[in-house]
TrEMBL record:
Acetyl-coenzyme A carboxylase carboxyl transferase subunit beta domain mapped to chain residues: 50-394
GO MF, any single term: propionyl-CoA carboxylase activity
Transmembrane regions: none
Protein name (database record): Acetyl-coenzyme A carboxylase carboxyl transferase subunit beta domain-containing protein
Amino acid sequence: MEYQVETTASDYHWLSASLKNLPAIKALQGCLDDEVELFMPVDCERPDRLRADGIWLLSGTIDGQPVAVGWWDFRVKGGSFGRSVCRRFLAFLRAVEQRHQPLLLVVNSLGLRFMEGRTIFADVFGLIPALLRFKRRQLLVTACQGRCLGFGALVFGLGHYRLAAGTGATLSLTGPEVFQLFFGQRIAFSEVAATEAEYHRSGLIHELPDRLGDMMMRAAYVLKYLGGDRPLPAIPYEEVAPGQALTVSSLLQALGGRALEVFPGYDSRLQAFVAELGGRRLGVLLNPPGQVNNMFAFRSLVLYREALQLFRALRLPLLVLLDTPGVDPRFDGQNQRVLEQLLSVTEEVINYPYRKMGVVIGRGFGGANSLGMPKVYGAEATYGLAGLQLGVMHHSIIEQLLSGSAPLLAQWNAARAEEKDDCSDVVEAGILDGIISIDGLAGVVMKTLFATSPPPLMEVG
């Protein structure tokens, strides 16, 4: 095809091109629609790998949904951050923001271009505040496709949604050569820097597809739905008989039947979704109903925090569906920081700027109730699903703890005698706004989060 030049600034312009004619970024084929625009120096009138200087900056579409992409080309100067690269990147961010496009950054970089010397600091570090400004206005998805080293690791970490390829990819503040200079052979760089190791020890990586192609298709899928306003995918229909135990699917069906899970597989005790009810979107956090071990552990709380930050960026109201026996009290292994993470999440919950509500769908015991959107934390409303269990601890545990003190046990039994099996005492105290059925869930959510009545139920063909 003919390459067309559209000048948008004195130093750079948009250059129309076809992905099938750009072998350096062939991994984007199948993820983006074929026609793209490259952001190149103004005197560059054809796609040029060397002039791209280690990073291809472009605008395209995913099934018609506009999106901008930064693709690091490791074969050109290690995809490093040099002065000219960073200046073009800054101009690109401004142009993309004017187009109101979400941004995908696929990082494969050695970090700073140290051959240019220390005078590059201002140009390179200037990308951080620029990206922070951008992500306050638009969705930013980042992906690690090979090496995210040094400054590249910092750029990766700024994404609202962060993916990494699991096979052969590394994420570290330095490369293997420098690592070995300081620490020798006694510590294997591949073990500490592998993305799979990072995925399991921190919240830096949200998803870990095994291969690059899988990662790119997942990134495109997330951007396709979260980067615009097209209807979310319909969840598989599940026949629910009266009185049947709740499932994740039946809860999502009760909320309209359209949802996209975010950060799938990150934790077994908590799941996060962007759902759609009556044509409006909301963020949903839920414990898989009926699952015995739903205690909030460190990793559960990390997922809670990361989901809140994503929902906040998407400007979504928030619904929490709680079924938990409490917070995991063990201080071993990764769970050593559970208390620190609980305090961090609590602050995020209180400061969440959009409408929020909670529904206890099963168990709600102890301090974990603070994660179910209590009204004292600014929730618009908090409800309970019929059959819920609510308390400081399960009564059998309290009875066992007080079995050695007759006066205290008597005092507890007197307090318990005031509790109603249907939790009407909690409603009367104003802690819950009411007890609802699963069929009434959509109605209270619409009324509370969107101040309107629920839409008709979806017809299932």
